[in-house]
Specification:
Shape: globular
Radius of gyration: 16 Å
Helix content: 25-40%
Largest sheet: 7 strands, mixed
CATH architecture: 3-Layer(aba) Sandwich
CATH superfamily: NagB/RpiA/CoA transferase-like
Number of strands: 11
Distance between the termini: 30 Å
CATH class: Alpha Beta
Number of helices: 5
Number of domains: 1
Strand order of the largest sheet: 3-2-1-6-9-10-11
Length: 204
């Protein structure tokens, strides 16, 4: 992969963030459909340990996914952003009130005083947010590279499943750099997109 121009990526981020914020009140309705699609997929059914993002700024909600994990006896975690280390740390959540707190960048995160760390290498499925996606599994994030580093270095065997609205999908391939990771699956309110990443060998 080449190294895309930073200004081009910044322009795309602005464009797709505006489109996502334009969904308005339909976030709940459309988000329910995307979540239901993921919950009904074999990738979710076969996962024993899942990491799920906590949404902000109009991202697809994840409350139903967390509830489904808990009701099905799965281990469910959410990431804490370690800004000085530039990495994500998954902490186990139980759905109890008060276990989330404001974290870096204004995103809610599990409270380390109430939630235990979970080994990232044991994750079977990582549910990933993003600004934009394409039909080949390409993802445009927020520019920090946190998920790219986490997926490549700490959870390489986990299946990568993104949640997005149709309006976040690019009709042309996104400009990807050497360190931009591809998604295995993308779930929207209307369809499931199979990404282009080669599957890693199973650790089992």
């Amino acid at each position: 992969m080449h190294r895309p121009d930073g200004e081009a990526k910044a322009g795309l981020r602005r464009h797709f963030l505006e489109r996502r914020l334009g969904i308005g009140a339909r976030v709940v309705e459309l988000g329910e459909r995307a979540q239901s699609s993921l919950i009904g997929h074999p990738a979710f059914g076969g996962a024993r340990a899942v990491m799920v993002y906590i949404p902000f700024r109009g991202e697809v909600p994840t409350e139903r996914i967390i509830a489904a994990c808990l009701s099905q006896g799965k281990t469910v975690t959410a990431p804490v952003t370690l800004r000085t280390e530039r990495r994500l740390l998954p902490l186990r959540v139980s759905g109890n009130p008060g276990e989330l707190r404001p974290g870096e960048y204004g995103i809610s995160e599990p409270d380390p005083d109430r939630c235990e760390p979970f080994p990232p290498e044991l994750l079977d499925l990582v549910v990933i947010p993003g600004v934009a996606f394409d039909e080949h599994g390409g993802r445009l994030g927020y520019g920090g590279g946190y998920y790219d580093r986490f997926l490549e270095a700490e959870a390489p065997a986990a299946l990568r499943a993104a949640l997005a609205f149709e309006t976040q999908l690019s009709s042309v391939p996104l400009p990807l750099g050497d360190h931009d990771t591809l998604m295995d699956l993308i779930f929207t309110e209307a369809r499931v997109i199979q990404g282009g990443r080669a599957r890693p060998e199973s650790r089992r």
